[in-house]
Structures are given as structure tokens and as C-alpha cells.
Amino acid sequence: MQRLKLKLKDGMRGASLNDLYGIFFEDLNHAADGGLYAEMVENRSFEFEPVDHPGYEETYSWEISDPKAAQVCTKQPLNSNNPHYLEAKTTKDALVIVNEGFNHGMSFQDGQSYRFSLFAASRNKSIIQVFFENEDHEQVSETSMIVVKDDKWQKYELLIRSEQTTVNGKLVVKVLPDANVSLDMISLFPEETFKNRKNGVRKDLGEILEEMHPKFMRFPGGCLVHDGTLDPDDRESMYRWKNSIGPVEQRPTRRNKWGYNQSLGLGFFEYFQLAEDVGAKPLPVLPGGYDPHHKRAVPIDELQPWIDDALDLIEFANGSSDTKWGEIRTKLGHPKPFNLEYLAIGNEEVGQDFFDRYPYFHKAIRERYKNIKLINTSGPFASGSEFRRGWASANHNGSNLVDEHYYMTTDWFLANQHRYDDYDAHGPKVFLGEYATKDNQWYSAVVEASYMIGLERNADKVGLACYAPLLCNVAFPNWKPDLIYFNQHDVSPSLNYYVQKIFMNFQGTYDVPYSIDGLPKPIVKSNEPITGSFGFEADHATIEYENLTFTDLKLGQKQIFGSGHLTDSEKINIDETNTSQYKISFDAIKTGGRVDKGFKLIFGKKENSGHFSWVIGGWENQDSIIEQRNLHNQQSVWDQAQWTMVENTQYHFEIVVKNRHIETYIDNVLMNNAEIKPTVIESLYSNMTFDEKLGKYYLKLVNVTSQSLQLEVDVTKFQDGKYHELFSSPKTKNEIGKPNKLTIQDTSKLKPTVHINPYSVNVLVLQPKSN
Ligand code: AHR
After folding, report:
1. Distance between CA 142 and CA 450 in Å, rounded?
2. CA-CA distance, 40 to 486, in Å (whole number)?
3. Using one digit for the tens of pLDDT, what is the confidence trace for 425-451?
4. Is 385 helix (H, G, I), strand (E, B) or coil?
5. Which of 197, 440, 587, 714 is buried most deeply by CB count within 10 Å?
6. SS3 at position 524
């Protein structure tokens, strides 16, 4: 077994880690409604509409015993933001309306109380009973009663105790005979929420976030923020934070980009509160007046309300109670400021439209609040012309940070371990606002850990980093993998979660110089030229191609393959090559199919190692992309440029491959230019930091290999030490409802030799001897 030696180097202090590791909350996968937000009733205000999701209508999620006795009305609403309500008119029989929550069952705990509330207005004396049932329709709580006599909307509240534990519970609201009553905002929360906040978040989910000790919390998205229309009063508007504060019954409901409804019950006040409760700095993201999904742009001379949203948000968070927005915060229950330091304008926007608008936000915010750290954005990919456009804008405007996003294979992360070594420490810092490998297997988590070593080693260039997405209700996945899975009663952190947690728990204040002697040489896993078969793949667009020509650039020989036709998801294999330098050229026209789609040229395809694609009209037909797919069809993007394939227009396409270098041209204009880095596996990834507050060193050791290692530590230099180990076999995954499969071992006595397990993530905590 390889024996290594740790040596501390005296004197120098490395880069500060500041707020490096945080979390990113976005309401996708039902992370807010039906997730973190502790509301148990789905569609509490009868506002679900097909605009949110094709299967929705106003009584979605409600079981109504007699639909004739219960009509959804809009005549006399609770308020104009909440237009729909249920009018119940009973004669001889009672009307029973039942809600089973988001996951086909509510979780009730024996002996625990739940806060029930509704708004009602009655044209006579109407009596309503409320109780809980289990899956066998047995009543599992006492019956509580509400008598409604007032014809004006009033709020009624009850505390109901469950007398049984069930995960398939239902809320039953029974309108007794001879009633004529309007009902709205029928709501149920556990009495105990995280930090016992009213309108708060689920205790179990809040706690699991708090246990990570994140330094910051990015919210509320993601694409959620910028996908929408420009009018804040529109049902489908972009996320406008002012809609999300104040009494919940007055907040308008909105379409969620991820195909469901967002009640906005978990709004900006709750997000700020949550950040504070988990000990994180808030990091809100605001739309920059541009929706890249639908190319909706606010005219520049109409940007002021959007800029005001940003300025007002800063005042809302930080202003004293005698400012307009500080007073609103105070009235909402938080007189002290939330100490906002970071603000992001935009989320992975592409296109000049956004970058024409960003400077207006930047300038106005800088003028009034010079200490706010402003975050610009560099698109959804790790490289390419849009990525460079974001960085150029950040450099030009003097943004403090640039938001980078990438979701890639483990091989990509291993190939890019040194990505930040060459970044400029004096320019804007990186905010790695979204990243993840493509899996929740332990191997993926270990590779993420190895990559995080590179982030903290480069803390002078990387300011902030957070894994994405954070939460997923297992019944509603929009995006996988995620960090934490849950249903109505259970929480199942992924193995990736434990990596994030250990890195956050032992972040440290600054890097310290050290060395580890005796490390075996890195292994280069793939460095061969990109050769193999090539062909086309349709992507729901209809394509006619002609003049398809393959040129061996080494021999100067051409092969003509002529013309063809592609449709739906058809695949055509053309030929294969083993020459290391070649060109493929063709002309093509899109004649039909989906507007948001194009096609792919597949190349470098080998049976045992996946393939490359030139994606022509990728990402909603807005991009030209060079991607690599492994044998599990997991994708890494190596280069992206903005480009749209217009129907019935002929284009000339050319791709030139030289060893591992790829260039693409459309109509002789360079589109993509990518060097495919080889996957390199180092025998150990490590970084050492010092925690100034606790006076301890943290040495993180990540082993992505199947080999064990031994590390010798000079124990005479330390008065105490602890060793925290996470390990498992590479394919292990956690499953909801099953115990955690990761081995977590903590040793509290310092030993001269530390054993580093195969596929392990470890932190050695060392307390130096005081002089
Ligand atoms: O994290 C999921 C999505 O990925 C985010 O909404 C978006 O920013 C990115 O494309």
C-alpha cells in the first residue's frame, strides 16, 4: 500500500475561503409547494389552472361528494389576486370535500397538532366540521367545528390534534345541511415547523439544510426566475418578488416554469427568514428583464420598474424601519435587517439582449449601494461563445462575481480538475451557482468531492459554489439527480448530500500550504484521437441533407455520400473512420417538425466508449453544441454557441476533427471550437484549510480510486486530532424509505498513520500545539 507523508509548511497563509460553500433552492421537483413549504393542502385556494399544467382545473386535488352543491365562483372573491373560491350550498345532505395533499396522502403524527385555517363568508348560518381521516376512511382526530354567520370574508382558525400516525391521511371539510357558504384558502400546517415559524417550512427539511451549515442560500431559481411574461400581474409572469410577500391570501398564484402551480406562499420574506434560520447569507436572483426561453425582452426605456425591483429589494432586506421597504419588512415581523450582501441579476441568460440590459441594473445598484456584490451570468454551459459573452460583460461592468453552471459526467469533472487554476485572481470571481455530476451513485459523489478540492484550492478565484438542484419530492421529479429526496413523511439525503455537508462543516477560513510526499503518478484514462463511426440523428425536426462528404485530412482523400432525409428520431449510420484528422461537410435544410428542435451529427462513436455529437439547433433550437455522451447516455457539453436553424433555409455545415480538437462551421462561420481534455485520475485529491475561529486545520482527502493509501502524520506537532471518513462501494445509492447506505466513521483519537479507503472522502481535523 502506498505510504504518504504530510508536511505542513510554515508561515504563509493562502486564499480566504469566505462564503465558499452554500446551497441553491429552486422550486422545481415540487421543492416549495409540496416540499419545503409546510402547507399540506394542495390547491388550497382553487387557483390551479391548465396554464400551470394541462391536467389542472380549479378543484384539482379536491374530492367533492356532490359537485352540484359545490361550484367554483369568481363573483365575490376574497380579493382580486385570489379570484376563485368554492361556493357550497347544502339542503338535506352535508357536502364533504376532501384533500389528500401533494403525495396522495398527508402525514399525521399521533399526538401532534396541526393548524387548520380557512376563509369563509356565509349567506346564512353555516356550520362546517373539520377532521382527519386515514386511508381506511377512519376518523383519526376529534371533530372541530366552525360556525360562519358573517357574509363578509373572515379567517377561521383551528388547532387539530391527530390521534393516529398515518402517512396516507386526508383532511376532511364537511359543510353541514342548510348551509350557503363561500370557502377559500383552506390550509393545514403542522403546528411544529422549522424554528416554529408560522407559514414556515417543514421541520425535517429545514433541519437537514441547517445541518449542512451553508454559508449562503441562492433562491428562488434557476429558470424559474426568468421564464415568464413581462407583466408582473400576468398569470404567467416572470418571478417578481413583490408578488411573493405580505398576507398569503393576497399573494397571486403563478404558473411554475416546471409545469405546476406556485402559490408563492414560500416567498421572499420566508426565503430571507429561512436563510437566516439555517445560518446562511441570502443570495436572491432577480430577472434581468429578459426571458431567454421565449426571447421576451423589456424595451430598454421601460426597464426602470425592473431596476426598481432590485433597488427596493435591497432596501427591503437592509433598510432601516423608517425606509419604505424597511418598514414593510418590519411590519412582516423582522425589524432587524437581513444583511443582504449578494445579489444576482439573471440566471444563465444567453444572447445580447440580456447583456444590453444588465449594465442598467448594475449602474443603478452600484450608484446607490456600492457594497452589494453583484453577480452577472455566463449561460448554461461551461464554455463557448455565450459563456465568454457573460464573462466579457462581467469584466466590462465590474461585476463582483459571474454565475457559472454545468451538469456533466464524472469524466468531464475529472478532466477539468484544474479549470480554475488559470483564472484571473484579480477579476470577477466565479460563483459556481449550479453544478453536479449526472448521478447519485457514490462514485459520482466522490468525484464531486474531488472537484470541490479544486474549488477551495482556487478560493482566490472561486468565491461561491453550490450543488444543484437541492430538493426533490419523489412523486414529482422534473430534474435528476438531486441532493435531497423526500415525500410527505420521509427525507432521504443522497450520498452527494454527505459530501456537500462534510465540505461545508469543515470549510475553514483560509487555505494553508502543505505537501503530501510519495503520491503515485496520475493515470490518464482517455487521450486517444476522436475516431469511430459517424452518421445523423433526427431530433423531432425534418431535415433534408445533400453533398455529404468525408475528407481524410491526412491523406487528402474525399468520399462522397450524397443526400438523404431525416425525420422524428431517426438514426442513420454513414460510415466509420480511424484517421485522426478529418472533415465532414454537408448542406442541409429544415423542412418541418418541431420549431424548437434540430438534428445531430454523431461522430467519434465507439462501442466501448460512447460518442460525440454536433447538436445543430440544440437547447430549444437556440444553440450549436459539441457534446459527448458516455455509455450510459450521460452528456457533457464541451462547447456552445448561439445559433438557430430557420426553416426552409439552406445551410452549409462543416466539422473538422484533429486528434482531440473539434471545430464546427456554419456557412463558413466558426461556431464551435473545443479541445476535449483527457480524463486524468490523480491518486489523491487534497486540500488543507485553517479554521480561525476554532484554531484547527482541516485536511480534506478524496480518493476516487480502488486503491487504499496510508498517510503518515507527525503527531508531535498536534495536541489533538479527529478523522471523519465517508466511504462505500462506487455504485451505492440511497433510496427513500431505506437506511442510509454510506459508511460514516468518526475517529476521535489522533493516530500517526491515517488509512485512506478506496472511494472515500475524508477530513482530518488537526489541532496544532500551542507554542
Ligand atoms: O437546476 C436546474 C435548472 O438548471 C435551473 O433552473 C437552471 O438554471 C439550469 O438550467
Report:
1. 54
2. 14
3. 999 999 999 999 999 999 999 999 999
4. helix
5. 440
6. strand
Residue-wise pLDDT for 17-26, tens only, equals 999 999 999 9
CA distance 333 to 347: 30
**Residues contacting residue 560 through CB under 8 Å, at least 6 positions apart:** 547, 548, 549
Answer yes or no: are the C-beta atoms of 626 and 614 closer than 8 Å: yes
CA of 231 to the centre of ligand 1 (A): 23
Ligand 1: nearest atom to the Cα of 479: 2
Place of cell 452589494: 372
Q: What CA–CA distance (Å, rounded) separates 37 from 218? A: 16
Residue 605's SS3 state is strand
348 noted as active-site residue: yes
**Which segment of 1-5, 462-466, 600-604 scores lowest on mean pLDDT?**
1-5
Which residue minimizes the CA distance to atom 8 of ligand 1?
Answer: 222
- Pocket probe for ligand 1: among 225, 226, 479, 635, the residue whose CB has the most ligand atoms within 8 Å is 479
What grid cell was written down for 331?
Answer: 411590519
Q: Is the pLDDT of residue 2 over 80?
A: no
Ligand 1, atom 1: nearest CA belongs to which residue? 469
Backbone angles phi, psi at 453, to 5 degrees: -60, -45
Count Cβ atoms below 10 Å from residue 213 Cβ, excluding itself. Answer: 17
- Phi, psi (rounded to 5 degrees) for 353: -55, -45
- Look over the chain and give the mean of its residue pLDDT values, rounded to a whole number: 97
Instruction: Return the pLDDT at 771.
Output: 65
Count of Cβ atoms closer than 10 Å to residue 528 Cβ: 12
List ligand 1's pocket residues with C-beta within 6 A. Answer: 26, 221-223, 347-348, 380, 405, 434, 468-469, 479
- Read off the pLDDT band of 4 (50, 70, 90): confident
Ligand 1 atom nearest to CA at 433: 8
pLDDT of residue 715: 85
Counting ligand 1 atoms within 8 A of each CB, the residue from 23, 25, 26 with the most, and so the one to mutate, is 26
Q: Which atom of ligand 1 is nearest to the CA of 348?
A: 8
439 closest CA partner among 483, 384, 395: 483
Catalytic site residue from 39, 100, 348, 349: 348
C-alpha 671 to ligand 1 mean position (Å)? 24
CA–centroid distance, residue 486 to ligand 1 (Å)? 20
pLDDT digits (tens, 9 = 90+) for 541-590: 999 999 999 999 999 999 999 999 999 999 999 999 999 999 999 999 99
User: How is residue 341 written as a grid cell?
Assistant: 450582501
